[in-house]
Specification:
Largest sheet: 3 strands, antiparallel
Oligomer: single chain
Strand content: 5-15%
Helix content: 40-55%
Strand order of the largest sheet: 1-3-2
Number of helices: 7
Structural class: mainly alpha
Mean pLDDT: 89
Radius of gyration: 18 Å
Shape: globular
Distance between the termini: 40 Å
């Protein structure tokens, strides 16, 4: 349980919070002001409120503080382990909770994609942007193998740290059956 008593399912039902988590990945330490510059579409008061909620919820920690004029500026870092939803919690979620979190994930994805397209110099072809959707016919064993392969491929790269020549990419695999099994 988080310091505020909120679990991840209760803490993340807002696209701005997920965008903050994405921006803070890779061990970055950022101030709320720096986040405001990254997300000019988010009002400052909204950004401050969501950063506070993530801090109170145990997802962001304060790395350092300094006085800037008469204001105390805090630099935050993501506690990545606290961004995961526990498998037991996923199993206990209601259909409405799944709907709500999926909706937030899709709204976040759309906001991030729009922010990308609005940047000067965005080039989906050169940047190898992909939003492929396809139907795969899989038996339970093939499905388990696919899930394991995708998880392994992603996990192998989640340990990459920011460095020259690397830029963050958002990947959002979505997988669900479209019909009941026959």
């Amino acid at each position: 349980m988080r310091p505020s008593g909120m679990d991840t399912v209760e803490l993340f039902p807002h696209p701005v919070r997920l965008r903050i988590v994405h921006a803070m990945s890779g061990g970055r330490a950022l101030t709320t002001g720096e986040l405001c510059k990254r997300f000019p579409d988010v009002p400052k008061a909204t950004m401050y409120r969501h950063v506070a909620a993530l801090h109170d919820g145990g997802v962001l920690e304060i790395v350092d503080e300094r006085r800037v004029h008469s204001v105390l500026e805090r630099r935050y870092r993501l506690l990545e382990a606290n961004t995961r939803i526990d498998p037991d919690r996923i199993a206990s979620m209601s259909a409405d909770e799944h709907r709500r979190l999926f909706g937030v994930a899709m709204a976040t994805l759309l906001a991030e994609f729009n922010a990308y397209l609005d940047r000067d110099g965005s080039d989906p072809a050169a940047d190898q942007v992909s939003y492929l959707q396809t139907t795969l016919w899989l038996d339970p064993g093939e499905l388990a193998e696919l899930v394991a392969d995708v998880r392994a491929a992603i996990k192998a790269r989640t340990r990459n740290e920011p460095s020259p020549g690397r830029s963050p990419h958002l990947i959002s695999p979505v997988l669900f059956p479209t019909e009941p099994p026959t």
